[in-house]
Amino acid sequence: MKLECGIDKIKNAINQTEKVTGKNLTLPILSSILLIASGKSLKLRATNLSLGIEMEIPAKVEEEGIVAISGSVLANIFSNVFQNENVLIEGEDGNIVIKTKKSRIKLKGQQSDDFPTIPHVTGETFEIEAKKFIDGIKSVYYSSSVSDIKPEISSVYIYSNEDNLVFVSTDSFRLAEKKVKVKNLDEISGILIPFKNIPEILRTFGDFNGSIKVCFNKNQISFSSDNIYLTSRVIDGVFPDYRQIIPKESKTEAIMLKQDLLNGLKLSNIFSDKFNQVNLSVKPKEKIFELSSQNNDIGENKTSVDSALTGENIELGFNYKYFLDCFQSLTTDSLSIKFNQPSQPIVVSGVSDKSFTYLIMPMNR
Amino acid sequence: MDIKQLWKNCLIEIESGVSKANFSTWFKNTSILKEEDGIVYIAVPNEFVRDWLKNKYHKLITKTIADGFQTMRAVEYTITKIDNNNSSKNEAPKQIETYANKELPLKDLYINPEDNINPRYRFDSFIVGTFNELAYAASQAIIENPGTKYNPFFVYGQTGLGKTHLIQAVGNAIKDRYPGKKVCYITLEKFATDFVNSLQGNKANSFKEKYRKYDLLIIDDIQFIGKMEKIQEELFHTFNTFYENNKQIIFSSDKHPNHIPELVDRLKSRFAAGMIVDVSEPEYESRLAILKLKLQEMDINLEPETLDYIASAIQGNIRELEGSLNTIICQYRLKNRPLTLIEIKTLLKNSIKPKKNVAIKDVVKIVSDHYNLDETSIYEKTRRKEIVRARQVVMYILREDFNVSYPLIGQKLGGKDHTTVIHSYLKIKEELKDDNQLMQEIEQIRVMFK
To answer: A111 vs chain B: nearest CA distance in angstroms?
Structure first.
């Protein structure tokens, strides 16, 4: 194998693919990136058997070939090579030599025959702007459960509803739902992407402009653009029927500025106990919306937040962390909080923004 | 041919042909799903594996299957969930259910700081036998009519017989049944500390209010109240408030109220006003039932003979019963095979106490026989050296092995003061440390009891 390519392009591709390499010790080959030189391009492939990625960069290929090289070594090398020029890669009996203007690096390769293939998904497809898709996932994925016990909820659930693509995740203490408008959407009954694979999807397509093609079946999902192909296992399971737990009506409603509530919560956080509990007291008649928390070792605190209130008095406690998490997904300046009973979920949404809904279970008092 | 066996044979053959790393990555979670019209369907966990087996190992697999199964025509790969995922699939509806009930999921995860009740203690895991059926029945009646039926409810019994479990289970049941009711479980020690703190901070009133706002108050280990005069007074007032407002109070103690030392009469009579029940030691059948329930909770199976042995060897205390069971399970997991009865006997040797009920007279007889003395001389008020020694040994054995109280020993051995008994007991204990002769004598005497 012999080829020449731009250093920026290969650097970026190695950084992206290296993140997907497997860290499991049973099959050491998984920690490497497979370099495939053919036609007019260089393909880089990596997989950890849950995710697989393939990136294609343009290259001047003089001699075709395949070689597997340790991902972390490649990433280290290219993070320390700064010249902005072309790089020459030559294969020598399973090893490779990388030549830049100033360095000559020889690397040991691994048996490329053992490198697994990446499934090419066939099934239903749809196209979506990468930005919208990333926005949808980013708005909800922090709510999924981190434990492996119930794979259904340690994942992000995606389905279609009319012309919306809906993203949902929950860890059974809170739930986030984001709706994204997509034109010409076919019906999608539901896809569960494992939570653990989400960060890589976000990293790969986070800065991507343009649209991506999503293809899925009941075992696998793939995202592809012109030069990136990313595929992930999907979970074969049933997401809880969450719609029935979103309260239809509310007894109390509070509307306030996001920043005001954020300041109040941050102050309460200093005094919250090890369960992160913050208590909330709402008295619409007296125009009181008060956060309080206490810690036997530090002290206590009461902070009121300016807000427009309607409905009945209510008092409850909640985990402030759950509240803080949703702020990144609220795009509006002011937000609305709806309450029912102290044992029913709190509903948080942006004022005049119906696309994002967030549920928090109160804590038992 | 059995397809399971077929695949097992194939795997053995394949294992020798590929590297260990490859085998464990690609073949570990595979199985043969079914065989239809000569097509063998192989179950694989995901698409990565399917592609790889198809591309890389298809020939090898086809060949090995064909060796054992001549009529095979083709091999297909199907993605299926592996077994442990199946079990979680069954749990999915449960998840929805908890949501539907709108329960707070956090509730079960920790002891509620507000009422101190451990959610683990429930009636589901409470074994009822003749030893505690009265206490159980009374507690059920209280759950039906809290505050009116048996108020106060006083449970007493030896340590480790499930008193705390019973009273906390009542608390949990009342919480479930009457969601608005405020329940509080507290040990007397905590109650006392709270009281002292409130006195220090000049907040006596807030202390009163704190406890009086509850609808059900459960105080555990009340026997320590003896020397705390102020606490007795405070408890008396708290009690009256509860009683007048028809709010339920539950106490537990290791003694009958009449036997709690220095308990003021007004409290004694108030405890007696409600229901006093004792929890005694579980009989064999209940012990067996408890062991079985514990095993079920831990999802472990032991042989019936083993259970039978534990249940008959460990008498009395349920806590010790659980402890012994845990020791055995620990060894069982370590060795990864069933234990023999002999091993179990060695493990439990230290937990098994000698028979508890023994007449003092018998002890005296055995000891005096051993020392070649007349039995009656032990009871006499004499200070002849050989008799004094024998008498001290009697006292030591009664105390050490049979846990008889000092005053009782003194009384039975000719009206001695309990301090005399303590002195004798300590003296022998001290001497045993470096007197081998005495040690042997006592060991010989002990053998006579078995």
So the answer is: 13
